[in-house]
Design goal:
The protein folds into 2 domains: 152 residues, no CATH class; 180 residues, Histidine kinase-like ATPase, C-terminal domain (Heat Shock Protein 90), CATH 3.30.565.10. It is elongated. It is an alpha+beta fold. A hairpin with a 2-residue loop joins strand 6 and strand 7. It is built from 10 helices and 7 strands.
């Protein structure tokens, strides 16, 4: 459980949270002043004094709850809520007594006790509403994340490499004549499927995905031999970038299975990775087979649809996959946000 993701009290030290809290507090003061009388008699002095009082309380409560947030997380939601409400009441009561005795802000509001009680009750109601909203919002976010994870798991479960049957045949043919090479091929297949079937690691790095693709390409060379060549254009500083696991391998597999393997002379699979601002772009290119007009196979369409659905589920509109003919080559282009393990989502 992480503080930021799984605790219903948000990070109130974040600039966005502070801005929203200050804005909402000011709107409450403005509504109060508007309700006092006609618009032509708008009381600017009351607005200024009320804003000073309310914003002082708001910022002080935000600072104290933010400082105690890590400790509150260890408590149950009910206990954490009670402590937050008690803190808000204590801050408001103390500020009300100070303003009444030093600045005389209560004016004609009655006795000091009445001023303190009314302000504390109002702060209690507003704080309770905000905490309830935060709790419900967190529940909805957790439910959405759970549904998203189930969807990603279902998409990952559909990954069935088409090369398995041919690979096993290639390994069987090597056992008698090149047992060492056959043994290495078995180890590569085991490593490839270990990664493919791993359920815990949802993301990978570009370096790890390249390693996985190289394992796959090494296995395919057992079948295609010198007909298959590859090239990688990727700067070293791109290797730590995070991408969804098993995203590149199906695209490289499509390039081999539907491109290189269909050509008697073979060809080259090129993988080019580069940054375009805050976007990571990856191009996978391969020469078209001689029968370029033949429709794409169902396996190719399924792989592309699978990747598109995974990108949509994980990144929304921030990522995309485009694939199609570019001259005499077929190109698949991935675009997704450039993130590292340290920067996170």
């Amino acid at each position: 459980m992480t503080i930021d993701d799984d605790f219903f009290i948000p990070n109130l030290c974040a600039p966005q949270a502070v801005f929203i809290a200050v804005l909402l507090a000011e709107l409450v003061v403005l509504m109060h002043v508007l309700a006092l009388g006609p618009l032509a008699m708008f009381d600017w002095r009351t607005l200024a004094l009320g804003s000073f009082f309310v914003q002082w309380n708001t910022l002080l409560c935000l600072a104290l709850i933010c400082a105690l947030r890590s400790r509150l997380q260890a408590l149950s939601p009910a206990v954490a809520t009670v402590l937050c409400l008690a803190l808000v009441i204590a801050v408001c009561a103390g500020s009300s007594m100070l303003s009444a005795s030093v600045f005389s802000l209560h004016g004609s509001a009655g006795t000091t006790l009445d001023w303190v009680l009314r302000n504390s009750l109002l702060a209690l109601v507003l704080a309770a509403i905000v905490l309830r909203y935060s709790y419900l919002q967190q529940r909805v976010a957790l439910q959405h994340r759970s549904e998203l994870q189930l969807r990603l798991d279902a998409l990952r479960a559909r990954i069935r490499p088409h090369f398995l049957f041919n690979t096993l045949n290639s390994i069987a043919s090597l056992i008698a004549v090149q047992p060492e090479r056959a043994e290495q091929a078995v180890e590569d297949v085991a490593e490839l499927f270990r990664v493919a079937l791993k359920a815990d690691d949802r993301d990978s790095t570009l370096a790890e995905e390249r390693r996985l693709c190289e394992l796959y390409l090494g296995i395919e060379r057992l079948r295609l031999g010198d007909r298959l060549s590859t090239s990688w254009e990727m700067d070293d500083d791109l290797e730590p970038l995070v991408i969804p696991a098993l995203l590149l391998q199906p695209l490289v597999e499509n390039a081999v299975y539907h491109g290189i393997a269909q050509r008697s002379e073979g060809g080259r699979v090129s993988v080019i990775a580069r940054l375009e601002g805050d976007t990571l772009r990856i191009d996978i290119e391969n020469p078209l087979p001689l029968r370029a007009s033949a429709p794409a196979g169902s396996g190719q369409r399924m792989a592309l649809d699978n990747i598109r659905q995974r990108l949509e589920a994980q990144y929304g509109d921030a990522a995309s996959l485009e694939a199609g003919r570019e001259g005499e080559e077929y190109r698949a282009t991935l675009r997704l946000p450039a993130k590292t393990v340290e920067s996170g989502p």
